[in-house]
Design brief:
By secondary structure, the protein is mostly helical. It has helices at residues 10-17, 23-26, 32-41, 74-79, 84-99, 107-125, 134-145, 152-171; strands at 43-44, 72-73. Helix 6 packs across helix 7.
């Protein structure tokens, strides 16, 4: 006997014929590692400000911009030396993607990038670039480090940030 369409779950049927499916439903968790690796390989486009520039501008750079520096990827910014401004840009990008329901980036991958950027700022610059309460920040860092699809370098930065929190807590006793 052939299955009858009228016996189908209406929600599942609606998802099947949806012309604009949410990107969050497109990706499976088994694909998150590849998606994260892709994000880490994307070139970071952040112009560093040097303040007002006066006088002739023979290089045709916009006033207030630093000379063009070699391009770096998001991964290089997170795992090698970067500026605080670059890490804030990555954090803001990840936060925007995590909170947008139609983001092409899966929520969990965006959240992981968010916490890696915060961890990198703490490790590289000893700066906190979030207003999250320490308890929530610690939970987020632990969550991101525990993802089975997490990049080994990401785990390393997250673990270093967690260690810094432990050291600070011990020094406050």
């Amino acid at each position: 006997m052939q299955p009858d369409l009228r016996d189908s779950d209406p929600h599942r049927l609606a998802d099947t014929i949806d012309l604009n499916p949410s990107p969050q439903r497109i990706w499976g968790e088994h694909e998150y590692e590849s998606i994260l690796q892709h994000q880490l390989s994307v070139e970071l486009d952040v112009v560093e400000s040097t303040g007002p520039v006066s006088g002739p501008n023979p290089t045709h750079e916009l006033p207030g911009q630093a000379p063009t520096s070699p391009a770096i990827t998001i991964g290089q910014a997170l795992f090698d030396r970067s500026t605080l401004r670059q890490l804030i840009a990555i954090k803001d990008f990840a936060k925007a993607n995590a909170s947008h329901p139609d983001s092409a980036l899966p929520h969990d991958v965006a959240e992981a990038l968010y916490f890696i950027a915060i961890a990198a700022a703490l490790v590289q610059h000893n700066e906190t670039i979030t207003r999250l309460a320490n308890q929530n920040l610690l939970a987020g860092l632990r969550w991101a480090a525990s993802r089975p699809w997490q990049d080994a370098r990401g785990c390393g930065v997250l673990q270093k940030a967690l260690q810094k929190f432990v050291e600070v807590a011990q020094n406050q006793r």
